[in-house]
Structure formats: structure tokens, C-alpha cells
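Homework help board

Subject: predicted structure for assignment chain

Our instructor gave us this sequence and asked us to write out the predicted structure in C-alpha cell form, then describe one feature. I got the C-alpha cells but I'm not sure how to describe them. Can anyone check?
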Amino acid sequence: MGHADYAKNGQPDILCAAVSALVIGTINSLEELAGEKLDVETDEKTGYIRCEFCGDMQEKSYFLVDSMIFNLENLSREYGKDYLKVKFKEV
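My C-alpha cell output:
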């Protein structure tokens, strides 16, 4: 079963794959296209990804992060909040 528990047992979890592609793609873009220095921690078994900026975000990075959030919220609406909840935590 996938990390989002969207798929039936033994089937690929398309929602988990979509979320992973969005998050990992955004992290890669932040590093490669925006030149951000990031501290990234992952656990493939649980699907956990933590990403912290090692300095102030550049203006172009806000656009990339906003785009990721927009797409994650769309996935949450499409697949249901039982499978994907987008939460914000101020740090």
C-alpha cells in the first residue's frame, strides 16, 4: 500500500507518486534553478520529507513554493482530504 493509502493493497499509489513528484521536483528546482542552499531530510519508507532553507529565500523561490502549494491543494480537493491534507505551520 502506498504512503497516501489511496491505492488498493498491492497497487501503485498514484496520489503518493503525484505528491512525491511535486515535492521532489520543487526541491530540485529550488536548488538547481534558484540556487538555494537547502537542508533536506527524507525517509523513503515512511514518505517523510523535510526541507529547510539555509538562509533567506530568494524572490523567485517564493513562486516555486507557491506553485507547489497550489498544486498540492488541488490534489487534496480532487482526491479528498481523507488522503491528502495540506497544513501550514509557522516556524
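Reply (TA_rk): Your C-alpha cells look well-formed. For the description, you could write something like this. Helices lie at 14-32, 59-79. That's the kind of observation they're looking for.
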